[in-house]
Design brief:
The protein has helices at about 5-10, 15-25, 30-35, 40, 115-120, 130-155, 155-175, 180-210, 215-240, 245-250, 255-260, 260-275, 280-290, 300-325, 335-345, 345-360, 365-380, 390-415, 425-445, 455-470, 485-490, 495-515, and strands at about 45-50, 75, 100, 105. α9 runs antiparallel to α16 (about 345-360) and α9 (about 215-240) crosses α18. The strands form two sheets. Strands 1-4 form a two-stranded antiparallel ribbon. Strands 2-3 form a two-stranded antiparallel ribbon. By secondary structure, it is an all-alpha fold.
C-alpha cells in the first residue's frame, strides 16, 4: 500500500491536513513582497543634476534638453541665465559646453521619499546597478534551489523549512539596515536563498500530506496567497514611501512572528500524525528516503530524463517571461501602485480558471495552453503602436495572467511528476532553471536599445516553444504520487491508445513548426 493510498485509508483530507495546509500557506502572503519589492524600493524617480545656485521656484535652471526640461545626466559648465527668461530667444543648446553631474542629483520625492536609487545615486552611468541588484536576488533564489533542494531530500523538508523561515527574517531585516549598496546586495542574495527553500518545501509538504483528489485545490490555495500578497505589497508601498522602513516592515513586522511561528506547531502536528500511520509503511518510507539519490538520477532513466528536460524548459520560459513583465511596472506610463494592483488582480480569474482545467481536463493541457496564450499576447504587442497605452497594458496584463496560471500549474505538476525519493532534487533543478530565466529577463530588456521590438519577440517566443514541450509530459490527473523512480518508469509505458494519441500530437507539432 502506497503512502497516498494509506492516507486515503486513514481519512483523506481531515482536520490535520486542513490545519497543515493553512499553516504552510501563511508565509506565502509575504513571498510576493520579497519577490517584487524592488518595484518600489528601487523605483526610479524623476531627477536632474544638482546646480551650483539655489533659486526658489526655479527648478529648471539646468535646461539642456530639446524641450527645455532638466537634463538627467549632464549640466552646463557655466550658468545660462538667459534660459530663465521666458521671453528670451533660445540659442542652439547643442553648442553649449556640458559636464556630468559632479555635485550629485536632485530627485522628485513626491511619490517615494527614499529609495535605493536616491540614496546611492543609481542613475545615469550607474543605472544598470538597479537591474544587477534584482539579478543578484534572483541568483540567491537559484543557489537556494540547488542547496536546499538536495538538503531537503537528505535531512527532511521540515528542518530545512524552519531554517529558511529564520534566515528570511534575519537577512531581510539586515537588508533594511544596509550601510552600502554592496551590503544590500549581499543580504538580498541571502534572502533570495531563503525564499527558494520556503517555496519548494512548502509546496512539497502540502502535496505529500494531502489526498490525490485535493492536490489541485491545495496548489491553487498557495497561488491565491501569493496573489493576495501582491495587493498587500501595493498597499504597504503606498503607505510607506521610505525604502528602509518598507523593507523592515516586510521582513520583521509583528506579522512576521505570526508567519514564522507555525513551524513549531508543524513539528508537533507532524510527529502526532506519524504515530497514527502503519509502522511497516513508515519504515518503508524512511528507508526509501535515506537511500542514496543524486542529481544524476534526474537524467539516468529515459522517462525521468524526458520529464526533467521538458520541465526545465517550462520553468525557464514561465519565469523568463513573467519577470520580463512584472519587474517593469514603471514603463507602463500609469500609476505604479495601480498597475501593481491590476497585475495582482488578474491572477484571481487566471488561477481560478486554471484550477478548473487542472482538476477536470488535466495538468498537461492547462500547462501547454497557458504558455502558448501568454506567448501570443506578448507577441501581439509588437504590432500595437506605443501611443495606445491602454491596449498595450491589456495585452500585457492578459499575458501576465496566463503566466500566473502557468506557475500555478507547474508547481503542482512538477511535484506530481517526480517520485518522492528525488522530488526535492527535481524541484531544485526546475527552480534553478526558473531563476536562470528571471536573471536573464532584465538583460534581454536591454536589447531594446538596439532593436525596440526584439525583447518582445524573445519574451513571446519562449513560452510558445515551451508550451509545445509541455505536451511531451505525462498526465498526472487523479494519479497517486509516485514513490520510486522505477514506479515512474513503469507507469509511463504507453498503451495502444496513448500511442495513437502520441501520433496525433506529433502531427500537430509538425504543423505548428511549419506555421511558426
Amino acid at each position: 500500500m502506497s503512502f497516498a493510498e494509506l492516507l486515503d485509508h486513514v481519512g483523506g483530507m481531515g482536520r490535520f491536513q486542513i490545519i497543515y495546509v493553512i499553516l504552510l500557506a501563511i508565509p506565502v502572503f509575504m513571498m510576493a513582497s520579497h519577490n517584487l519589492l524592488q518595484n518600489f524600493t528601487a523605483a526610479t524617480s524623476e531627477h536632474h543634476c544638482h546646480v551650483h545656485i539655489n533659486i526658489s521656484n526655479t527648478p529648471d535652471t539646468n535646461l539642456t534638453g530639446n524641450k527645455l526640461q532638466p537634463e538627467k545626466c549632464h549640466r552646463f559648465v557655466t550658468m545660462q541665465w538667459q534660459l530663465l527668461d521666458s521671453n528670451a530667444t533660445i540659442t542652439n543648446l547643442t553648442k553649449l559646453e556640458t559636464e556630468p553631474c559632479a555635485d550629485g542629483w536632485v530627485y522628485d520625492k513626491s511619490i517615494f521619499t527614499s529609495t535605493i536609487i536616491t540614496e546611492w545615486d543609481l542613475v545615469c552611468d550607474f543605472r544598470q546597478l538597479k537591474q544587477m541588484a534584482q539579478s543578484i536576488y534572483m541568483a540567491g533564489i537559484l543557489v537556494g534551489g540547488i542547496i536546499f533542494g538536495g538538503l531537503s531530500d537528505r535531512f527532511g523538508r521540515r528542518s530545512i523549512l524552519i531554517w529558511c523561515y529564520f534566515q528570511m527574517a534575519v537577512t531581510g531585516t539586515c537588508t533594511a539596515f544596509s550601510p552600502s549598496f554592496t551590503a544590500y546586495c549581499i543580504f538580498r542574495f541571502l534572502t533570495g536563498m531563503a525564499f527558494s527553500g520556503i517555496v519548494m518545501n512548502g509546496v512539497s509538504l502540502s502535496v505529500e500530506w494531502t489526498p490525490t483528489r485535493t492536490r489541485a485545490i491545495v496548489g491553487t490555495t498557495y497561488g491565491y496567497c501569493y496573489t493576495t500578497g501582491q495587493f498587500i505589497l501595493a498597499g504597504m508601498a503606498y503607505a510607506i514611501p521610505n525604502w528602509r522602513w518598507l523593507q523592515l516592515v516586510v521582513s520583521f513586522s509583528p506579522l512576521s512572528f505570526l508567519i514564522h511561528s507555525p513551524s513549531i506547531l508543524l513539528f508537533s502536528l507532524d510527529a502526532g500524525m506519524r504515530q497514527t500511520l502503519s509502522e511497516s509503511n513508515m519504515q518503508k518510507e524512511i528507508a526509501s528516503a535515506k537511500s542514496s539519490y543524486t542529481f544524476i538520477d534526474l537524467v539516468r532513466t529515459p522517462v525521468v530524463r524526458q520529464i526533467s528536460f521538458c520541465l526545465s524548459f517550462v520553468w525557464f520560459s514561465t519565469s523568463f517571461a513573467y519577470y520580463g513583465l512584472a519587474m517593469d511596472l514603471q514603463n507602463f506610463g500609469v500609476n505604479i501602485f495601480l498597475i501593481q494592483l491590476i497585475f495582482g488582480a488578474v491572477d484571481f480569474p487566471a488561477k481560478f480558471i486554471s484550477v478548473l482545467t487542472i482538476s477536470f481536463v488535466g495538468r498537461r493541457f492547462t500547462q501547454a495552453l497557458a504558455l502558448i496564450l501568454a506567448g501570443l499576447s506578448i507577441l501581439a504587442n509588437i504590432f500595437v503602436p506605443q501611443d495606445l497605452k491602454t491596449l498595450r497594458t491589456v495585452l500585457a496584463v492578459f499575458g501576465k495572467g496566463c503566466l500566473a496560471a502557468s506557475f500555478n500549474c507547474v508547481y503542482l505538476y512538477t511535484s506530481e511528476l517526480y517520485p518522492t525519493v528525488i522530488r526535492q532534487t527535481g524541484m531544485g533543478l526546475t527552480n534553478t532553471m526558473s531563476r536562470l530565466g528571471s536573471i536573464i529577463a532584465p538583460l534581454v530588456k536591454m536589447l531594446e536599445e538596439y532593436i525596440p521590438f526584439l525583447p518582445l519577440i524573445i519574451y513571446g517566443a519562449a513560452p510558445i516553444i515551451s508550451g509545445v514541450a509541455a505536451t511531451f509530459l505525462p498526465e498526472t490527473l487523479n494519479v497517486p504520487l509516485p514513490e520510486t523512480i522505477e514506479e515512474v518508469e513503469t507507469r509511463s509505458k504507453p498503451s495502444h491508445c496513448q500511442l495513437l494519441m502520441h501520433t496525433s500530437l506529433t502531427g500537430v507539432r509538425a504543423f505548428l513548426y511549419k506555421v511558426f
